[in-house]
Design brief:
By secondary structure, the protein is α/β, with parallel strands linked by helices. It has helices at about 1-20, 25-30, 70-75, 220-225, 230-275, 290, 310-315, 355-365, 395-400, 415-435, 470-475, 480-495, 505-515, 525-530, 535-550, 560-580; strands at about 45-50, 55-60, 80-85, 105, 115, 130, 135-140, 150-155, 160, 175-180, 185, 205, 300, 320-325, 330-335, 340-345, 375-380, 385-390, 450, 455-460. This is (wild Malaysian banana) hypothetical protein.
């Protein structure tokens, strides 16, 4: 059909540019728009048998002397791996490379590529291995640490400079991280000492472990103090003083006015509580009761965003917008004076004492995991409990399921597995740490899976169902654990079927079970996954995990540790399936 023809034309165009219009090479490889890349033997091309689409292009050691036309290359919609190792390719990596959204492996080592690595590389969210070694690249590295699944980065023997981003070194194999023989400077980021010094040698300005060169101590406060204030600084400080004065007058004015407004606010608060409406509202979220309590009663656990301090009074004064009213209480987006956005949960009280609530919050703060959103601060009094989080602007898994797609991520099989594995890991880790204290999530659902700025899944509102009585009734945490496993199973079903659940999770489980019983298993899978080339075997495996999690008998459900291990196995097998053999 015409789409396939357009893809062939683009790929042939890509090869022409890559070879520098060398017709000899093009003929030798047998690429022609008149033939099919999958069935007519285009050399260097591998197709996905199920979808008959190109997923790997391997053109190594062919003496290619042209440039990379990423615009044309990325027309192949299922392209997962590209290897152009050991040619004489010139020019730069074009920014359009980010259009190859499914790319997992990109090997460009041993060419004559130059310029800096384009920042758009960081948009390749599925990338696992990037090899740019033995070229003539210069400039600073883009923040490749943003790509959470990156397990290989080879950049040795170039002229790259600047500092090394804070990679998740724990993910890298020794052989698969190498920035040696460049012009990098500054300290090796934390975790780099897990690797061998051969990964870093040959950078004259680089210091810290595993290199034998210690980093110089950073200048102390005393040194700073002794520095004379320059004229510009003096002007700047007098500016601050003036600003401080204006703020002081403003706050005094507000304080006088607040007294007058208190009465109106109480009425407005009661209105929120009674209608539960969501949407924009200039009505402050704080109750009179909360404003009247001591200003020191906000317990800050973590500094939010760029803020140096978070004060209860500032929180009360900041403009708030209602985001919704759920089972646990109401949620407000609060914008602080410096522009930092916070999400404040006002918990519907369930009889937990302030002391018990505080104990739970502090206990949870000790059990952090990258896939669990930590509370920034909390406030508890007998009348009111508030929990403050950082606002996550990329929305939730629910919004992805509802089709509010974000440009920066393809909601494809690989991403869905990443979400499933991240949530499973986070939940399992929290269970390990907190179930002994009877603290489970208690309200896990896709609207509580938020997406961080690098689109990693992050569980929010862990442990806010502070009904200790239900935990005791359930027998020391096992019922809350089984309920969380069930909820996780529903999330897996949502990922597999593409159908979001809002009110009745068991209905989705019942429907899936009935289809599976009739042996129409494939019918349950999201059409977008099937047409996107997701492997049926992998989807069936994940479905089996989901069905075990939603087993009607809580005692028959696996533990979260076991579930996380099963999900990881599916993810690893799928990675291997799509992974191209290492060149
Ligand atoms: N920290 C946050 N940053 C950005 N959005 C958030 C944050 N926390 C929650 N949200 C989003 O705000 C909306 C309202 O959240 P809320 O918690 O009130 O609803 P809910 O999850 O349906 O209810 P509940 O968790 O109380 O049962 C949801 O769409 C949720 O995804």
């Amino acid at each position: 059909n015409s789409e396939e023809y357009a893809v062939r034309l683009s790929l042939v165009g890509f090869l022409q540019v890559l070879s520098g219009n060398d017709t000899g090479i093009i003929e030798k490889l047998g690429w022609s728009a008149a033939t099919d890349p999958c069935t007519d033997g285009w050399n260097g091309v591998t197709c996905n048998n199920r979808t008959s689409s190109v997923y790997k292009i391997k053109l190594e050691e062919l003496g290619l002397r042209g440039t990379i036309d990423a615009g044309r290359l990325c027309q192949a919609p299922s392209l997962a791996a590209v290897s152009l190792l050991h040619n004489a390719i010139r020019g730069e990596i074009p920014p359009e490379i980010s259009d190859c959204g499914r790319l997992t492996h990109l090997y460009l080592g041993g060419n004559s590529l130059a310029g800096s690595l384009p920042p758009s590389l960081t948009l390749l969210g599925n990338l696992k291995v990037l090899d740019v070694s033995d070229n003539d690249f210069s400039g600073e590295l883009p923040d490749l640490a943003k790509i959470s699944g990156l397990v290989g980065f080879l950049a040795q023997n170039n002229r790259l400079h600047g500092t090394i981003p804070s990679f998740r070194f724990g993910n890298f194999d020794r052989r698969r991280f190498n920035v040696s023989n460049n012009l990098f400077a500054g300290p090796i980021p934390p975790g780099g000492d897990r690797l061998d010094q051969t990964s870093f040698i040959g950078n004259p300005g680089l210091c810290g472990k595993p290199l034998p060169v210690a980093c110089p101590p950073s200048p102390s406060k005393e040194d700073h103090k002794s520095l004379k204030l320059s004229r510009e600084k003096a002007i700047m400080f007098s500016g601050y003083i003036a600003l401080g004065l204006v703020l002081f007058l403003f706050v005094t004015y507000k304080l006088i006015h607040r007294k007058k407004r208190t009465k109106h606010r109480k009425i407005a608060d009661e209105k929120i509580a009674s209608d539960g409406s969501s949407g924009k509202s200039s009505i402050p979220w704080s109750s009179t009761e909360a404003s009247a309590t001591a200003t020191s009663s906000l317990i800050v656990l973590k500094r939010p965003g760029t803020m140096t301090d978070l004060k209860f009074d500032d929180l009360l004064k900041a403009p708030a917008e209602s985001l919704g009213r759920g089972r646990n209480g109401s949620l407000y987006k609060v914008t602080m004076a410096d522009g930092t956005s916070l999400a404040v949960k006002r918990i519907r009280d369930c009889g937990t004492s302030a002391a018990e609530f505080r104990r739970r919050m502090e206990r949870m703060d000790m059990a952090r995991h990258p896939n669990v959103l930590p509370a920034v601060a909390f406030h508890c009094s007998t009348q009111e409990k508030l929990v403050v989080y950082e606002y996550q602007r990329n929305g939730s898994l629910l919004s992805l399921l509802q089709g509010r797609q974000l440009d920066c991520v393809a909601f494809d099989w690989s991403y869905r597995l990443r979400v499933a594995a991240g949530v499973a890991e986070g939940l399992a880790a929290m269970h390990r740490e907190l179930l002994a204290d009877g603290i489970g999530h208690g309200n896990l659902k896709s609207s509580n899976i938020l997406l961080t700025n690098v689109m990693d899944p992050c569980i929010s509102e862990y442990g806010l169902v502070a009904d200790s009585r239900s935990v005791e009734k359930a027998g020391g945490g096992s019922a809350v654990a089984a309920a969380d496993v069930h909820a996780f199973g529903i999330i897996l079903l949502e990922l597999l079927t593409g159908k979001p659940v809002r009110n009745e999770p068991s209905e989705l489980a019942r429907w899936v079970n009935s289809v599976v019983r009739e042996e129409w298993t494939v019918e349950v899978f999201d059409e977008a996954l099937v047409s996107g080339g997701a492997s049926e075997g992998g989807m069936v495996q994940l479905l089996q995990v989901a069905l075990r999690c939603v087993h009607p008998s809580p005692a028959a459900r696996p533990s979260m540790d076991h579930v996380a291990a099963m999900v990881n196995t599916v993810r690893e097998e799928e990675d291997e399936r799509s992974e191209v053999s290492e060149p």
